[in-house]
Amino acid sequence: MRKFLEPVTIVFVALTLGFGISAFFSYLRDRTEPLIPFTKSELSHYFFQEKVSHDELVYKYHNDQPIKILLVAGHNDEYPGALFENTREVDLNIKVANYIYDILKNNPHFETYVFQKEAGVFDEKISVYLGEKDHIENFKTSYQRLAKWFRGEDIDAILDDSLHTDTPEEIIQTLYAINAWANDGDIDIVIHIHFNDVNGRTKDDIGNLSGFSIYTPGDELINKKVSYELAASMEKQLLKILVPSDNPEEKDIIIKNDSLIALGAFNTLNSASILIEYGFIYEEKFQSEEFLKNIARVTYLGLQTFLEK
């Protein structure tokens, strides 16, 4: 018991005395010796342990405790994502999110939130976090400092995935705000909804790649296990109507990634989280509303089979 209480007490006292969370993590960052009598590895166990498990979610589902789902349709009006002719990725993302929501909203097993039901129109609760820019900046830097101190990670070297290195600062802040809200709101599962693209393609051209992929937290993140299990369930259902990505970098379909903020980079997210690239935006089938509804249906089935274990 002492081994659990002492690190917690250290944090509590630091914050109670007005040390401030950012200053406290700065203190940790600058230390060259562990807090006696604990090693960094021992302290890491307390701060970086799994918060959500598959078994816990299955228990909630079967015992009339609603599973809290957050659907995040990626991008916004200013940064609409991939483009094909007159189709914007953000609009496809929102359509799929709303179709999934329509399936889930009347199911008592789920309590469902949609990040944006229209481009730039955000969930009221999340909007509060989007407006707290200083708070979100502290949230981000605090977790980064904690990761650096515990693991000696070079923060500057951990970039947002190699396929997403041009992410605007506004989007980065938004993603961290989503993670902060999801943690505070005890969200169980976060699903990020996207459509892929080929680098360098002009909006009127059809690219040479097709197929879906699912990104899931890498081995350094606390939500890796439950997220991978969710991704595996989702993969089985999506394969009923979609083909795997033929991008060589996505050949495994499920791709582990430690640096995507959406998945909880620097352990900023407790929830199970996956990012689905349903396919490439120029694929003809995505122009069909019925096909988008089918995507929503199999996504729901992926959730259902995951929870009916």
* Rg value: 20 Å
CATH superfamily of the largest domain: Zn-dependent exopeptidases
Number of strands: 10
Strand content: 15-25%
What's the end-to-end separation, in Å? 34 Å
Q: How many separate domains make up the residues?
A: 2
Physical arrangement of strands within the biggest beta sheet: 4-1-7-10-8-9
Low-confidence spans = 1-10, 12-22, 25-29, 32-36, 159-163
According to CATH, the fold-level topology of the largest domain is: Aminopeptidase
Shape call: globular
- Helix percent reads 40-55%
Secondary-structure class:
alpha/beta
CATH 2nd-level architecture of the largest domain: 3-Layer(aba) Sandwich
Succession of helices and strands: HHHHEEEHEEEHHHEEHEEH
Question: Sheet bearing the most strands, described?
Answer: 6 strands, mixed
Mean pLDDT: 85
Total of helices: 10
Q: Which CATH class of the largest domain? A: Alpha Beta
Textual characterization of the structure:
The strands form 3 sheets. This protein has a 6-stranded mixed sheet. The longest helix is centred in the middle third of the chain and has 19 residues, at about 135-150. Strand 8 (about 215), helix 9 (about 225-240) and strand 9 form a beta-alpha-beta unit. About 45% of the residues lie in helices and about 15% in strands. Mean pLDDT is about 85; it is low at about 1-10, about 10-20, about 25-30, about 30-35 and about 160-165. The protein is an alpha/beta fold. The chain folds into 2 domains: about 1-45; about 50-305, 3-Layer(aba) Sandwich (Aminopeptidase), CATH 3.40.630. It is globular, with a radius of gyration of 20 Å.
